[in-house]
Amino acid sequence: MIPYNVIQTLIINILRVFLVRQMMELFLSGDDTEGRKTQLGFLAYYLVTAAAYAAFGVSLFYEVCNYLGMAGLTTLYRCPWKRRLWTSLAIFSTDLACFLAVYFAYPQKSLAFGPAIPTLLFLICVTVISHISDPADGREDSLDKRQLCILLSIPAASILILCVLLYGGLEGTEALLICAATLMVNLCVFYLYHLMAENYKNLRENDLYRQQTYAYQNQLEVIMESQGRMKALRHDMKNHILALQALLQKRDWEEADRYLSDMQDFMSNPAEYVATGDDTVDSLLNYKLQRAKEVLNEVEAKISIPEKLMLHSFDLNVVLGNLLDNAVEAARQTGEKRLKVSLKLEKGVLFLCVQNSCRGIAEGKVGRLESTKADPSAHGIGLENVRKIVEKYHGDMELSCENHRMQVDAILYVKEM
């Protein structure tokens, strides 16, 4: 017959593993296509930790298995390694602090309690942390090296302190107070991380709004230039009509056609690449394409969308802004220096294609691009933001490279007016 304490440990460990998964999902972005793989991973983690605890109790071997299991579970999530490392350390230190707090509070009864009371305390901590964690749509890799070192040092130091308490022979009220203070510090670091993520998100939004302001200013200049050309043409319209009548009376069709072409060229504004009637699209694309024309040899845009597009302007800025910035940056480093943009709406589906010349990228589908920026830590954030917006509109995005040309294809499902 299986002893009662073993049954208790197995049941309580189910709740603990569930809480570990809940904490990971608060800070890591999962991939729905890997759902079965994730479940198998947590099942393996449950079996290993339950077996280690049943065989060795709270020991160095058990704690090593516990942390390595948590670190392994973080690899099941689609996140940068910095976030995974910090998450595994923070969860492990919180879990260890919860156990030692109960252990030093009731040293004689801790074995009788088993993992029940520590898991209950862990549940309280997870509940508190879930109210201060960052939202799912704001989980970017927002840590630079200095911030990463600060955040990693806190749980790492906590783990070191807790291990000294556990294996150094310190007991009594002092050990309990140190353990409780360590647990509070670990809870505070989650709030610190939340503040840093919020600050990064605000900075990113301010940068996007600033770019949008520049785009609107550029569009205003484009409109004023076009209106000036229309005003000049209208002022001389009587003379143009008389000239065309004279050419038609002489049946000089070629010269009349040439004269009309000259009028059309005069009306064309070289700074106006796009004129859909949608102020957001026109301002953003005209601004980005005009900047691209300054550094590239060939810039082509084919835009076919209605005046009113049921797409949030902020989301559109994220998608078009990031894709065009990345494309221009990559194209300007090549000899061809070519950029092509296509955007069209058909039956509620928005098709976006950005193609640019590139170098140093393997042929075929591309998963993650290598950074060519001065700050590699900032690379990839833009594409991840674009993916999130695409997923928000239940769409899909694919990156591919062929004949030294990088192509990004994205579809978004939007409503037509």
Features:
single chain; 417 residues; alpha+beta; Heat Shock Protein 90; 3 domains; six-stranded mixed sheet; two-stranded antiparallel sheet; 13 helices; elongated
Topology:
Layout: H1 4-27, H2 35-56, H3 60-74, H4 81-105, H5 110-113, H6 116-130, H7 145-167, H8 172-235, H9 237-249, H10 253-267, H11 279-295, E1 298-304, E2 309-310, H12 313-331, E3 338-346, E4 349-357, E5 364-365, H13 381-392, E6 396-402, E7 405-413, E8 415-416
Parallel strand pairs: 1-3
Antiparallel strand pairs: 2-8, 3-4, 4-7, 5-6, 6-7
Structure description:
The protein is α+β, with helices and mostly antiparallel strands and 417 residues long. The protein folds into 3 domains: 4-205, no CATH class; 236-271; 273-417, Histidine kinase-like ATPase, C-terminal domain (Heat Shock Protein 90, 2-Layer Sandwich), CATH 3.30.565.10. It is built from 13 helices and 8 strands. The strands form 2 sheets. The protein has a 6-stranded mixed β-sheet, covered by helices on one side. Strand 6 (396-402) and strand 7 (405-413) form a beta hairpin. Helix 3 runs antiparallel to helix 4, helix 4 runs parallel beside helix 7 and helix 11 (279-295) packs parallel to helix 12 (313-331). The radius of gyration is 30 Å and the shape is elongated.
